[in-house]
Amino acid sequence: MQLHQREAIEAAVSLDTAALAAIELGFAALGRGEVVQPPILSMAIEEANGEVDVKTAHIRGFERFAIKVSPGFFDNPKQGLPSLNGLMMVFSARTGVVDAVLFDEGYLTAVRTALAGALSARYLARENSRRVAVLGAGEQAELQIEALRLVRDIDTVDVWARRREAAEAYAERLRQRGLTVNVHDDVHAACRAADIIVTATPSTAPILEAADLPEGVHVTAMGSDSPDKRELADSVMTRADAFVCDTRAQSECNGELKAFVKAGETRAEVPFKVYELGEVIDKRLPLRLSEASITVCDLTGTGVQDTAIANYALQRLTT
């Protein structure tokens, strides 16, 4: 059994086109129905303001499958510790024997999440998109921009965050990478000229309204990943010409579609068609019918991404 620490994993895996292709391959397999992906196992540890999620998937034909354990303890920064942590256990898909444990401390999750955002833009955003509005100023807000630059020629970023000082620090980091960055005091101003909007916050109430959407924009919403989080107002989803999610079941439970799930029911009744990202990728569905089309993609994070990035990481670590 192989043991790999975060330092080695970071040296082997980065936000690049090869990693993007690995995640794209996983989503395409999901779209073809070639993935076994059970529901997320989630456990709250309320007294410590913590939660633990377990995700997994088997991709038919892949040599290995991964089981990821992802703790989030949100008071940790007060103790000088990171909020997010975790590891991936990787098993042989032929024998069930443990091949490796990746002590990535959440690094691979951050990478695969950013790459899913890039894929949503590749298939849904206008090809000439250059300006991105980012709501949020944390790690994923930064990684989403880095990943987007793999698929679009991004040159300008508009940022809004609840804490102005966090937005200013974020802006400075991106300026050092050659980007033009503007900090805004309200969401509407940040989104006014956007080609792409990325929401990357832990918000528990909608922060983006239909009135904030310029013509032709693509929205990637990736902050709502548990039952108590929301970033998009209902009006954003009903206004969209195409609504896509990584999986409908997860979006209805943890993502933005839960806004349409009635009490006592398990499936959302929505006044629009719902597409899944894997289907869009595999079938190359042309959902952007004009330059004025508005598209939305809701990403909750899937086990197929974890198995795809774990297989890719082990290939890089052992060659």
From TrEMBL:
Keywords: Lyase. Its EC number is 4.3.1.12. The keyword Lyase applies. InterPro entries: NAD(P)-bd_dom_sf (IPR036291), ODC_Mu_crystall (IPR003462), ODC_N (IPR023401). The keyword Lyase applies. Pfam families: OCD_Mu_crystall. GO terms for cellular component: cytoplasm. One of its GO terms (molecular function) is ornithine cyclodeaminase activity. Gene3D superfamilies: NAD(P)-binding Rossmann-like Domain, ornithine cyclodeaminase, domain 1. It is an enzyme of class 4 (lyase). PANTHER family: KETIMINE REDUCTASE MU-CRYSTALLIN. This is Ornithine cyclodeaminase. It comes from Chromohalobacter israelensis (strain ATCC BAA-138 / DSM 3043 / CIP 106854 / NCIMB 13768 / 1H11) (Chromohalobacter salexigens).
